[in-house]
Every structure is written in structure tokens, then in C-alpha cells.
Amino acid sequence: MNILITGGKGQLANSIMDLFKRRECSLGKVDEIYFHGQIFCVDKHHLDITSLEHVKSYFKKIKPGIVINTAAYTHVDDCESNIDLAYKINALGPRNLSIICEEIQAKLIHISTDYVFDGKSKIPYKEFDSPHPINIYGKSKYLGEEYVKQFCSKYFILRTSWLYGHKGKNFVKTILKASKEKEVLRVVNDQIGNPTYAEDLAYHILKLGPTKEYGIYHCTGNDSCSWYEFAKAILQYTNSNCKIQPTSSSDYKSVATRPNYSTLDHMMLRCTIGDKMRHWKVALEDFINNYERNVPLS
Ligand SMILES: NC(=O)c1ccc[n+]([C@@H]2O[C@H](COP(=O)([O-])OP(=O)(O)OC[C@H]3O[C@@H](n4cnc5c(N)ncnc54)[C@H](OP(=O)(O)O)[C@@H]3O)[C@@H](O)[C@H]2O)c1
Predict the structure, then answer these.
(1) Fewest Cβ atoms nearer than 10 Å: which of 63, 122, 242, 249?
(2) What is the mean pLDDT of each run of 10 residues along the chain (298 residues)?
(3) Among 219, 237, 218, 220, which Cα is nearest to 229's?
């Protein structure tokens, strides 16, 4: 069985490929089934998911049994001014993949986001709570989910949040860099979510792949925090002398409105393959140890 990963240059695709190469991570081993076929990890120049014809001809060539769609337009603020592009990549892209997956009876593992919720809840969102996105990124990702459910019968939708991995840009790397350049950092303390180590997410993606436990999943680091608490832990684990101060979203104007509370509950993981996602602090410490020691992960 061949495996196809879209968005091949992104941070999650790289973490999945790292896991394939190492065959195991702190959470466990990768299923042998993945190594009976070929693994194709392709960027947008090899497979542009926004073109139905392109997807069709590419799928005909490589005949994937499992497709993992990590491709997305992830620049949340830019989505507000590039609305067509956001919907093209985040909604029509998964639609195209779903249509062709259905034609060839492939499984589709599609990655989505906590930003499908509006953040008004006071308790963690379960998989079956009604989405109500409040920005273009969230709206386009939600439409992507709807298309996947509509056009593909063998689907897994995994919603994740506050993702960081070894390749690509992310909050952890931004804080690490800023802490070396500035004496004081100000970070918002009124947006609560779940930091997620891409390697832990990659592990659960690959655990679900061989199963028939189709449906919607929440897969994030366990327990929640604010961006301020997240940044504070990053500084603590790197023994940084940089000071940090909490600030509020109103002091730090961004183009897109973000949900204040987007914590996700992992009910579907608990009810199916099991929830091995680590506490966000445990996973962060592990990431920083690897990052600081410069362990080559790919
Ligand atoms: N990062 C987070 O904090 C976060 C939070 C919640 C959910 N997610 C979801 O998790 C998934 C993976 O995120 P990530 O952080 O790995 O994102 P990423 O690093 O931005 O990777 C996404 C990749 O998709 C590629 N892409 C864009 N348009 C494409 C197209 N038309 N066809 C094929 N590939 C295309 C991008 O290429 P270019 O960069 O060259 O355009 C990029 O390499 C996404 O579905 C995202 O929505 C991420």
C-alpha cells in the first residue's frame, strides 16, 4: 500500500516523515503496514491540491491507499485579505482529495483546526460540539471538513492546535529566538488552547491510518494554557534569563480575531485507539531537549 502526504514542505509533513524514518518515537512504534509500500511526501509543486485534474492524474500514477492531507493555507492573518486563496486551499483542496480518494477507495486523513470553534465555551470542546468559526482561516478549514465528510466515505478528520515541530516556523522557535534578542517579552494571557508537539500528533495519525475507526478526532497536547504560560514554560526549559510579562489580546492587535478559548477534549481517541497524547509540558520539554541538543531528526 502506498502512502501519500500532501504539503510535504510543512512542519507536520516533516514530522510524519521523521517518524517514518526513525520508525518510533517516545509514544511507540510505527505499524509495519506502512513499510510494505512506498511513501510519497510531496510539496505543492509536485501536487497542487487545488487542481482537481492534477489530483486525479497524480493519484492515478501512484495509487495511494492512505492519503494524509497536511497541506493548508496556515497564515491566519493573511487569510483575511486573501479570502479566495484561503477557501481554494483549505476547502477546495480537501474537496478534491476527497472526490478522488472516494473514486479509488483510498482512506483520507485530513488535518483540521481548533479554530473551527468560536471560543465561547467554558469547557473543552468535544468532537461533536457544533463548530462556529470566527475568522476566514477557521471558516475555510470548516468548509474543508464538510467537504471531506460529504465526498469521502473512509475519512479521519484530526483537529489539532498550536502546533510546533522541528522544521518550519512556530511559536516555540519564535520565543526561543526572541529570548536571545530581547530582555523582556510580552505575551497574551487571555487566549487559552493546547500546545501540540507535531511528533505526538504524527504518531496518532499513523496509529489511526490502518484502522477503520473513521470519524472526527481531537488530537492536541493534553491540558491547556495561555500563550503567556506556554512562553513561560519555553523560557523555563531553556534556562533563559529573559523576562516575560502577560498582556491582553486588546493590547496586541492582530488582523484576524482568534477564539479566546479553544481547548479540545480527546473523547474520540479515548473511545477508539486510546489517547497517548502527552501533557503539553512533558512534550514541550522533550522537544526542547531534542532541539537544544541539536539531535538530527531527519
Ligand atoms: N500550525 C498550527 O499551529 C496549526 C494549528 C491547527 C491546525 N493546523 C493544521 O495542521 C496542518 C499542518 O499544519 P503545518 O503547521 O504543518 O502547516 P505548514 O507548515 O504551513 O504546512 C502546510 C504546507 O501546505 C503547503 N501548501 C499550500 N498550498 C498548497 C497547495 N495548493 N497544494 C499543496 N500544498 C500546499 C504549504 O506550502 P507553502 O508554504 O509553500 O505555501 C506548506 O508547505 C494544516 O492542515 C493546518 O491547518 C496547524
Answers:
(1) 122
(2) 97 97 96 96 98 98 98 98 98 98 98 98 97 98 98 98 95 96 96 98 98 98 98 96 94 91 98 98 95 55
(3) 237
CA–centroid distance, 168 to ligand 1, in Å, is 10
Domain that holds residue 149: 2-292
pTM: 0.97
CATH code of the domain containing 265: 3.40.50.720
Q: Please choose, from the candidates 193, 266, 256, 261, the residue with its C-alpha nearest in 3D space to the C-alpha of residue 227.
A: 193
The helix (H) or strand (E) run that includes residue 23 is none
Q: Which helix (H) or strand (E) holds 66?
A: strand 64-69
Mutation pick for ligand 1 pocket among 74, 97, 161, 191 (CB with most ligand atoms within 8 Å): 74
- Residue 280 CA to ligand 1 center (angstroms) comes to 21
Question: 185 near 179, Cβ under 8 Å?
Answer: yes
Grid cell digits, residue 115: 479554530
Catalytic: 137?
yes
- Does some domain include residue 255? yes
How many domains does the structure of the chain reveal? 1
